[in-house]
Amino acid sequence: MQYRKLGNTGLKVSEISLGSWLTYGNAVDNDIAIQTIDKAYELGINFFDTANVYNRGEAEKVVGEALEKYERSSYVLATKVYFPMGDGPNDRGLSRKHIMESANASLKRLKQDYVDILYCHRYDTETPVEETLRAFDDLIRQGKILYAGISEWSAVQIEEAMRIADNNLLNRFVVNQPQYSMLNRTIEPEVIPTSERNGIGQVVFSPLAQGLLTGKYKSLNDVPADSRVANDKMNTFIKGMLNEATFDKVTKIAAIAKNLDIPMAQLALAWILRQPNVASALIGASRPSQIEENVKASGYIIPTDILKEIEAALQ
Questions:
Q1: For the whole model, what pTM was predicted?
Q2: Which residues pair with 80 in a beta bridge?
Q3: Phi then psi for 191, rounded to 5 degrees?
Q4: Residues of the chain above pLDDT 90, percent
Q5: Are 174 and 200 in contact (CB under 8 A)?
Q6: What is the three-class DSSP state of 174?
Q7: What distances in angstroms separate CA 13 from CA 95, 117, 166, 175, 219, one per listed residue?
Q8: What is the number of other CB atoms lying within 10 angstroms of the CB of residue 311?
């Protein structure tokens, strides 16, 4: 396993990280989830990601249970705040009240004294950014979180936050968690350049496009009824990509992977890691064997001529 610095910080995270969205505390049996996390740790993954909203705290409980046996300094743990955690008007968003209450509740579920990273899970149009930044700054000063992050913020929103943080001498955001894959490159034109200028690293989710880049699916007519792609509750971020043009790209990438004699998923993850602003590719895994295959992408360098071939296939 290779490790990269997270943005301009001194924190080093594994190039492949493990998330718990749609899996732990939900679709995957807890014992299997813990075995999967154990396998990830064994293979050098030191970066584990969850969120309070994942099955209303159940994912945090599973992740916390799995990690409590390991030396705390040996792993990096991230969670998130923003989405509704109750029915009350203050049970959501990025107000100081919700951030403080959510952070404390997450620490309790995770059985932790602190988390390494707390993300703003989305941008909150109803709360002043300064209020959010001050709450995060206080949590850092209290030692309850070490770094502040954002997820799915636009370049304009990132610039706004950096300006407000600097003007008020507040801790800056140092990491962004966007969606990024061969099939979704929306962060390349603006978000990555803005992040680079501001010392922010990317930890990308859905790098395998929720399974489309694993080689499981050949066409729209060849999608198993029990798969994630066929499940409208689980394919939220790829619904717009479920068309013949996408499957044409997938077929071409599969052929390139076959010629390289590597799994398609490994090629897709290595392609993500070609980008220096990406600190880690966040994978989901429902069984230990998936971890064993995906970690092989770390350190794999795609030859320049193959990168050009991939670029042509993705046009």
A1: 0.92
A2: 119
A3: -65, -45
A4: 84
A5: yes
A6: strand
A7: 29, 12, 26, 12, 35
A8: 11
Tokens (6 digits) for 305: 């001529």
Catalytic residue among 41, 54, 82, 147: 54
Q: In the chain, where are the structural domains located?
A: 3-211+264-302
* Contact predicate 68/38, CB 8 Å: no
Kindly report, residue by residue over 117-127, the tens digit of the pLDDT.
999 999 999 99
Strands 115-120 and 76-81: parallel
Catalytic site includes residue 54: yes
Bridge partners (DSSP) of residue 138 are none
Count of CB atoms within 10 A of residue 303's CB? Answer: 9
Fold of domain 3-211+264-302: TIM Barrel (3.20.20)
